[in-house]
Amino acid sequence: MLAAFFSLILRDMRLGYAQGGAAGLVIAFYAITISLFPFGVGPDAEILARIAGGVLWIAALLAALLSLDRMFQADFEDGSLDSLTLGPLPLSLVALAKALAHWLSMLLPLVILSPLFGLMLHLDGASMRVVLIALLVGTPALSLIGAAAAALAVAVRRGGALIALLVLPLYIPTLIFGVGAVEAVSGLGSVSANMSFLGSLSLIFAVLGPLAAGGALRLALE
Amino acid sequence: MNDFLSMGGYGAYIWACYGLVLIVLLGLGIVSWRTQKTRSHRADALKAAQPRRRPGATLGTSSKVQP
Amino acid sequence: MHWFANPARFIRLADKILPLTLPLTVGLLAVGLYLALVASPADYQQGDTVRIMYIHVPSAYMALFCYMIVAAAGFSTLVWRHPLADVAGKAAAPIGLAFTGLALVTGSLWGKPMWGAWWVWDARLTSVLVLFFLYLGYMAIWGAFEDRSKAARAAAILALVGVINIPIIKFSVDWWTTLHQPASLFRADGPSIDPSMRPPLYVMLAAFQFYFFTVFLWRIKGELAAIRLNALRYAGEAPRSASPKEEQP
């Protein structure tokens, strides 16, 4: 069962980077979204540094959103989701594996690249470290919540736009604590408290997200 | 009376609030009442009409008999 | 057709309850409005704007109450497959959305004279705004499916995910506002409320509650009639046309 779980993760990651995979696209989207902000608010270094944490987080949220509808859609259309139900994994674990693969292939590269964009937004070193750790701890929640919404959208069939409506309100706590951790560096609250809330969100949704996604997938396959 | 309407200078806000609440609640109530009324009338009418449209139908299997 | 036995009995029950709740709603609303607008004193600090509280707070309360109904309905859809549960969830959601919208707008109209701004990112307003989005998502799910029973279960899953999230969202938004805002200028609701403000508030709460039950029953009846109509149409037209027209509420 464990072997099936990990091979599913590997398979999905491979697909993410294969030709036509979305991983490269998502990174490009992340970069472009961030570079829009200086155009929107002006190139003033002080303002950019002030909002950098929020910008990086919101760009990550949108990038996650962009890549969500691929999580189950392709597998559903070509029937591999059906064959997965015959395997040893219950659907909720299939969803967990796919969410982890989504995080590893789509969001982890963004997290690793984020210091680069932080630099462009004049974020100082101490804040940058915190942003990096906060993204690392918090973005799994984005994939896990996203799995539930993506699965619901697959069941709907024309669910592309629906995902955004379902998922973004649920992302708000992650956004708040993620940005909170960054702002705590400059004295507004405590970094560790925000970090531990981020971590607990990821853990809560590691249970809740796959459970809901499993139920929704069962609907989709009926 | 004027005092009552002006509400200590905040009349516009207060009356807008109460007006809006009443309009929305009334509207939702009327729409809900009317849909259930028309729908159940339509369902009753349809039910009354169906056996007559298909004279050969026997009870219970009526849906499978061609008109 | 034993499936229909339950809804039919429910409709008979609803027809017995409605003649009670409708006059109660109207009566309580009339008394509540009188108390709120005429018989209660203006606040020494906020002046007459405090009267907005008497509809704002009940609206916000009903917004949450309706979500609890939606979530409970979702739970019994998924766990017990109760045939009336999904109907109840679908019926309650638009009422909840209406109350949520009213809570937002009345909050905004209260904020303008009090805070000097139409919108303040205050913890309560922000949480209610998120609740508004949750309702939109729930109703969008209902609208997106062609298959009714699938829509019911998908919406139920979303409602349950949402209801677990409500405390998390509330907590995070509280956390966020204490971080970003000096403590609120005043706390209008809460235990420190003046005794003279209690009667109008409680009467309005009761009025809104009975309004909910009345409209809720109407909407359930409407939903059940739509289901019955579909079944009848399907039975009547299926041999002739391949796709029976859905009754879209």
Task: Provide structural commentary.
The complex is a heterotrimer of chains A (222), B (67) and C (249). Chain A contains nine helices and no strands. Chain A is an all-alpha fold and 222 residues long. Chain A has one domain (2-221). The two termini of chain A are 24 Å apart. Chain B has two helices and no strands. Chain B has helices at residues 2-6, 11-53. Chain C has one domain (7-237). The longest helix of chain C has 40 residues, at 198-237. The two termini of chain C are 23 Å apart. Chain C is globular. Chain C is 78% helix and 0% strand. With 249 residues, chain C is mainly α. Chains in contact: A-C, B-C. The A-C interface holds A 148, 152, 155-156, 158-159, 162, 165-166, 168-170, 172-173, 176-177, 180, 183, 188-189, 197, 201, 204, 208, 212, 215-216, 219, 222 and C 78, 130, 133-134, 136-137, 140-141, 144-145, 150, 153-154, 157-158, 160-162, 164-165, 168-169, 171-173, 175-176, 179-180. Chain C: It is found in: Cell inner membrane; Membrane. Chain C: Keywords: Cell inner membrane, Cell membrane, Cytochrome c-type biogenesis, Membrane, Transmembrane, Transmembrane helix, Transport. Chain C: Its main location: membrane.
List the helices and strands and how they pair.
The complex is a heterotrimer of chains A (222), B (67) and C (249).
Chain A (H helix, E strand, L loop, with lengths): L1 H16 L5 H19 L3 H24 L1 H8 L2 H7 L4 H30 L4 H32 L3 H26 L5 H31 L1
Chain B lengths: L1 H5 L4 H43 L14
Chain C lengths: L4 H35 L10 H30 L3 H33 L7 H22 L3 H33 L17 H40 L12
Name the overall outline of chain C: globular
Distance N terminus to C terminus of chain C? 23 Å
Mean pLDDT, all residues of chain A: 89
- N to C succession of SSEs of chain A: HHHHHHHHH
Largest sheet of chain A: none
Quantity of strands of chain A, as a count? 0
Over the alpha carbons, how many angstroms does the gyration radius of chain C reach? 21 Å
Annotation field: number of helices of chain A? 9
Overall number of structural domains of chain C: 1
Radius of gyration of chain A: 18 Å
Q: Which stretches of chain A are poorly predicted, pLDDT < 50 over at least 5 residues?
A: none
**Share in helix of chain A:** over 70%
Oligomer: heterotrimer
β-sheet strand percentage of chain A: under 5%
Count of DSSP strands of chain C: 0
SSE succession of chain C: HHHHHH
Structural class of chain C: mainly alpha
**Helix vs. strand class of chain A:** mainly alpha
Note the overall shape of chain A.
elongated
Q: Span from first to last CA of chain A? A: 24 Å
InterPro entries (chain C): Cyt_c_assembly, Cyt_c_biogenesis_CcmC, Cyt_c_biogenesis_CcsA/CcmC
Main location (chain C): membrane
Function (chain C): Required for the export of heme to the periplasm for the biogenesis of c-type cytochromes.
Transmembrane segments (chain C): 20-40, 60-80, 92-111, 123-142, 154-173, 201-220
